[in-house]
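Annex B, item 7. Sequence and structure tokens for protein A, then protein B.
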Amino acid sequence: MGNDQEGIRVSRRGFIKTTALASMAATLPVTSLAGQSTVSGSKPSPVGTKRNLLFLSDVPENYEGLIKSIESIKEYQILVTPMKVDFQKPKDILKSIQYKNADILFIRLPGVGFSSRHIAEGMGTLDIPVILLPLNLDLIMWETDLAASFRTKCTNALLANSKEHAIELIKIVAAPRPLEGQRALIFGKPFRSTSVPAPNLDEDYVYKRTGVRIEHRPIEELKELIKDVDEGAARKEMERWKREAVEIVEPADQAILDSSRLYVLLRSIVDEEGLSAISIDCLSYTFSFDRILPTPCLAFTRLRDEGVCATCEADVCMMLSSMLLREISHRPSYLCNVSSVNTQTSTTVLRHCVAPTRIFGADAPPQSYNLRDYHGMGGVVPEIEYPIGLDVTMGGFSKDLKDFVLWPGRIQQGIDDRATPSFKNAPPEMQKMRKYCSVRAEVKIKDVHRFLQSIVGIHHIMVAGSYTKEIYDAMLRMNVNVIAPPDLIVPEV
């Protein structure tokens, strides 16, 4: 026996009883047939704490101790079903497991070496996570090859490096996906943002990858709905913004009132529909002097401060990124343009016109802010400063939601170039236009060259604090690859 099998005693009768009971499990599909295309993670996370784990081995009776350890996990009620299988016949394995109500698949390959690629080929894409624990931790090649082969099928295959590590991985994959069951609403053309279109995505794909239900509605609906906003509530919101601002630089009361109307409307939609996130394809109208709606920057700031992921420009991937970081950190995030990267100083400059004031959470004191207009074109936006020396986490999902860029950083002192005009020798109607957004953060980072090649798009997400382990665990659960610098310690300024 291998080094995991000492002390294990299971009677033949007991084993037959266990496997017979296993055959009575409820019918639920676990796999798609080999060769079929599917999206990993398509099975919704179970409700409650009960989880069904199939334990596949050629000699499962030898692993009673390990099975008891799995069943002893306190956080979840893990029901382990041992199954004796012949790994040389993967299609038979597929037939055996595809009608079991399984949430997790646990595999222990035989102790003798053999090609394992055919197992993944024969079993196809599995929509539940697979954990592999090598029998011999000094010779893990077959398990690593099988895990890699499963991943070519988009199966979430995780390799354990010890019994204790296997238990930790089971806890991670037993947890619901971080965003499971959350709802988001975008006003704009479906996956056709003016600035950040995502034609490769659709509602079904997003749900299968993340657990989030996204709905799109025409932006014109807001134009009609805003007419019926309670005037008293909007004025109360306007007065709050004015009272709490350090300075109102350009905006007139009417601009603040219009933005407050939009906040009242969006807040009512979020509350009535139980939304976790909301967005507008704002760049479809904000750079026009004849806007169909107020600029949403002020409304989005308030919503973020209140715990709602109100994200800019109908950017689906960054909406999901913001939701994830909000779920992990319990803090609102800064959706920003990666404006520039300086490889000489290992810094990046992040800009946008929306940032939360309560960067440390809804119950924390707000940062001080000024009220500015939108690029010198009317409207109103908050102007805040991120504290020098603050450690931050930056990143976001890739365009296909298969990768997540995770980059630690620290806010450092930067130049204030926000008054830079948009054009030299501009005509009178454009002389007040400003080139840069009203919120600017300069961030010190490590491995700057790799960061430059890992930027996920126009936008990134930044949140105050460091959440490396939490993000790694969440990505393991979601079957998402993490792209990060080798050294995840926040750099000194």
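Protein B:
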Amino acid sequence: MADQKQIRAAQRLAKTIASDILLYNREKVEQGIKADQLFKVLEAEIREGKELYQTRVSTEIIDTYQFLDRAIVDVLISSQATLNCSIW
């Protein structure tokens, strides 16, 4: 069973990975949201982030909390709410 320290570390790592994807791919994020194809546009970057996350976080935490999926939505999508596009 995962302890609170491991859970918090997994959550921080998920947010860091999602933030890095946004930081290094801001243009692609904007294009993906505008075209309503964010996950297709960032497929390679998201896959790389998930692979990294899986090497550092236990399967139990990944399956129970889904921190990376949540961080991707919070950081990549919600943070772009002011972007002028048709999907909002």
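Comment on protein B: The radius of gyration is 14 Å.
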